[in-house]
Amino acid sequence: xxxxxESGPGLxxxxxxxxxxxxxxxxxxxxxxxxxxxxxxxxxxxxIGYIYYTGSTNYNPSLKSRLTISVDTSKNxxxxxxxxxxxxxxxxxxxxxxxxxxxxxxxxxxxxLVTVSS
Amino acid sequence: DIQMTQSPSxxxxxxxxxxxxxxxxxxxxxxxxxxxxxxxxxxxNLLIYAASxxxxxxxxxxxxSGSGTDFTLTISSLQPEDFAxxxxxxxxxxxxxxxxxxxxxxx
Lengths: 118, 107
Prior knowledge:
Chain A is 0% helix and 49% strand. Chain A is built from no helices and eleven strands. The radius of gyration of chain A is 13 Å and the shape is globular. Chain A starts with a strand and ends with a strand. By secondary structure, chain B is mostly beta strands. Chain B is 0% helix and 50% strand. Chain B has no helices and eleven strands. Chain B has strands spanning 4-7, 10-13, 19-25, 33-38, 45-49, 53-54, 62-67, 70-75, 85-90, 97-98, 102-106. In chain B, the strands form two sheets. In chain B, strands 2, 4, 5, 6, 9, 10 and 11 form a seven-stranded mixed sheet that branches. At the A-B interface, loops of A face strand 5 and strand 10 of B.
């Protein structure tokens, strides 16, 4: 059973960079796409971007100028970096597997709340 | 960008009821439409992929239909564990997008 676990700071100061890592267990990171999704408190879901295990990426244009997603296949991890954060970036950040073979997100991490505040 | 609009935004129903949630895309997305269930404090859980295919392990009371711009999620007989928020999501084009959610509450 594939499992994903997000890790990183729960508090980031405005204008700084938010950095999160997703560790994949129970399966290889190879041959799949891996995605980040976020959810502001009490609101809906926003797709952030994905990375293929080879390193190719696709980002949400609304975040592209501030966003970097990377992968480390040797550690079975992928990561998100979002620069110049503001309070609007406060959200639960989820990592997920996909888009999978059916163009869905079939496995998700439990999520991590990141608050942007001084 | 493709906008996904769900209706209703909230819904009150009783155990045993049949419930239908609608999702409309701002342009045709063929059948690149997925449905997720989210309970408070938990990650979304995939229910339906490709508009009408049931994800492994999901009870058969859940079903999906539609293509093009109009889609529905139906729960044939509500169970207590089904009270949650439901999201549709399109994977036809980047940026992938979700509906605003439908909160299903106990009447």
